């Protein structure tokens, strides 16, 4: 039985900026843990004990977080992909350690253990597929019976709605074909091209439809993934609740966090370690707050991801937003998350009628600043007192 997984986590994730300006995409937090950690845990539950992490962009963050894997009861080896030359090239880098069947998985997908286990039971080569209504910008497959007959990498006119889920069961035999894979129109060596070479040579590539899957292709989809994971949590607390605070629904509170009097928290909500919340805060469902965060008096947070070290001191509202690490929002900062005309804020794949702000790390806002729906603010930008911002604010910008 296959017990090795190769996880592709070398990419920067340019479409996820500014959140990935300072961290690999696979290390973006969802429900209080990196996407990559969720994936490792699901793989472990599927019977995988050995991992090869192919790393590149800001790889030290991944190495320092996971180390040798012993904290999770697994073994991790790291392979560096120095240049972003595609998934088949990443597989080549891991080649010297691949001597038995293995699972190859994109490090930024959301998938469950049962679907990984069922794919492992198939003879390699085999891939996972999922049917989606909107396949814009995705790789799709054509099938005949129980075989894949054609793989398309982000076609302009998709021939099917069967999306390549980025999860493969392969044997070491694929390495020779990967070595002969040419570059795509994007200048990359892609694993889908490798598999197409196998198909064209007469090798049968099987497939299995999977049940639970999410590809986080843009920053707003991080909110949807967060909602998915939070829907499964249970109440847990290592913190302190002052008298007069109220909690309903499943809420997880980390070690040494303080929930001050007058706070009202409606789960599902995760609050990390060493946080100081309140007094009189209102934290609404589908919110994750990282470690070492400070939420001051009369702050309201709804359906958002607040990363570690961020301070939202008092009299502010944040809804349907992702706030990076070590941001500091001035008193009275308000994030609008709905258009007055009721139209979609974000259209296309992953569209949202409610969307606030995507904010990179170390952003500062002044008192009474206002952020319009769908705004993106780059790392270390400064939004001055009373300023109103909209659209795309670049990294390091000063808006007064």
Q: What is the topological layout?
A:
Layout: E1 4-9, E2 29-30, E3 33-34, H1 35-45, E4 50-55, H2 59-66, E5 75-80, H3 87-94, E6 102-106, E7 109-111, H4 113-120, E8 126-131, E9 140-144, E10 147-152, E11 162-170, H5 174-179, H6 191-200, E12 206-209, E13 213-215, H7 221-230, E14 236-237, E15 240-241, E16 246-248, E17 251-253, E18 258-259, E19 264-266, E20 269-271, E21 276-277, E22 282-283, E23 287-289, E24 294-295, E25 300-302, E26 305-306, E27 311-312, E28 317-319, E29 322-323, E30 328-329, E31 334-335, E32 357-359, E33 364-365, E34 370-371, E35 375-377, E36 382-383, E37 388-389, E38 392-393, E39 398-399
Parallel strand pairs: 1-4, 1-6, 4-5, 8-12, 14-17, 15-18, 16-19, 17-20, 18-21, 19-22, 20-23, 21-24, 22-25, 23-26, 24-27, 25-28, 26-29, 29-32, 30-33, 31-34, 32-35, 33-36, 34-37, 35-38, 36-39
Antiparallel strand pairs: 2-3, 6-11, 7-13, 8-11, 9-10
Helix pairs in contact: 1-4, 3-6
